[in-house]
Amino acid sequence: MDDPTLVVVDDEIEMAGFVAEVAEVVGFQVSVVTSVQQLRKTLETARPDVIVIDIFMPDTDGFELIGELAEQGCASGIILISGYGNTLLNGAGKIAAARGLNLLSVISKPFRLSELESALQYAISAG
Fold first, then answer.
1. Model pTM?
2. If we measure between CA atoms, which residue out of 69, 61, 125 comes closest to residue 100?
3. Which domains does the chain have, with CATH numbers?
4. Torsion of CA 5, 50, 111, 59, to 10 degrees
């Protein structure tokens, strides 16, 4: 059986790289994209098992992206990450779930390695 696939969407290269490294250790095949445009291009040809989304990026925000993914009927598991506080992050999570997305976890930056590992392991077991 192939390893599950994961796409990290984060404009902060260091954070995206960190998430990717942890995901690979947990057992994912990982792609990193640094913009929503790159994610759109990736989703034209691939259906990742999980997408890790940073809520705030320069070219769009996670709320727009949540709406877009919902309209496309995206079946990927979604993990939302943000450094802008739990209220905003939890609100985004509620919107994602209400729009029919497969919300797996919300993680507030800065986060512990164990939090990320747990979310990713859950994503594998839920898949």
1. 0.94
2. 69
3. 5-126 (3.40.50.2300)
4. 100
Q: Which two tokens stand for residue 66?
A: 């949540």
pLDDT given at position 1: 57
Amino acid at 111: F
Look at residue 115 and give its three-state secondary structure: helix
Lateral strand order in the sheet of 102-108: 29-33, 5-9, 50-54, 77-82, 102-108
Tens of pLDDT, residues 76-126: 999 999 988 888 889 999 999 999 999 999 999 899 999 999 999 999 998
DSSP string, 63-89: HHHHHHHHHTT--SEEEEEESS-HHHH
